[in-house]
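Table S2 (text version). Query chain:
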Amino acid sequence: MLQITAVRERIMRQIRKAEMTSTNNLQQENIPEFDETAEEASIYKVNNVRRISQNIFAIQATRRQRMGLWRTSRNMIVIRSRQDEELTLINAIRLDIPGEELLQSLGYVARVIRLGCSLGHHHDWHYKMMHGAQIWAPGISSTYRIPYVDRIIHENTVLPFAKSEIFIFDSALVEPEAAILIRLSSSTNRPVHSNHGTHTIMCESSSSDESTYHSSIMKAQQQQNIKGLLLVSEALQPQLHNELLNITSRTILQMRGMMESGIVIPSKWLRSQQTEKGKIRDDFERLLKLDFNRLISAQGAPVPQRAKEEVVMAVERAFPVW
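Corresponding structure-token output:
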């Protein structure tokens, strides 16, 4: 207990020091400061932690919005280097103190890879200021000027973890967008021990009821050789089987057409990009040439099998050719 308390106090001291430093820097550069209220409201609570492979972890977390009526969920991928326990966060989300302790038990945050620009900047800002992480992104956002992007990634960029490649949406999108393919050969189901408890990896829900959907997926997954895991931002969202949604958020997503199938290309994302649909379809057709059968989006439920088939149907629904 004393060790946990000490870790929490150290984290809070780091947060206060980072906030003071960031405020001074912003004043010197005449850049507007963050809304502290909005930054605190963006903190997510860890619900599930899955071990994708020996050094790849998927964290599902939730927070409540709009007076606590709407429960939203996000997914963050954590990839650990074997040599020095260096962590790379993909689709970063700011976690509560137990979540921060979990990250510290895995290693230290060296960089954040932002695949899309529509999920808010407070998360990237937090890891840059508190952990000194570099920000990698496929381009500079016109919506969020800060935190600054330290490195622009391209399809030929060498990532700091093996068996991976970058996919860039080449069409004239308003905001830059990317995806990452990680080639896998097997799956694991092991616990991760940290100062605040044990998180059972892979399809472990915070609910006491076992998910029939995820249980059947696990059995099927154990019988096949996993090919590739595709990581995306908001361009593809699998909300239909998202068990972390409450009734309010599920109803709203249903009205938006997000529950029509296993994976959906959101109309809101298409409208925000404001470009020709034919060009975006070309990007998705290139994406489908990648060898993957699993998918984890920044939002929605992880898709542990047959993800490519679901993406094919999503593309046909979003961009009908007849």
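Notes on Table S2: Confidence is low (pLDDT under 50) at residues 18-38, 187-198, 200-213, 219-223. The two ends are 63 Å apart (CA to CA).
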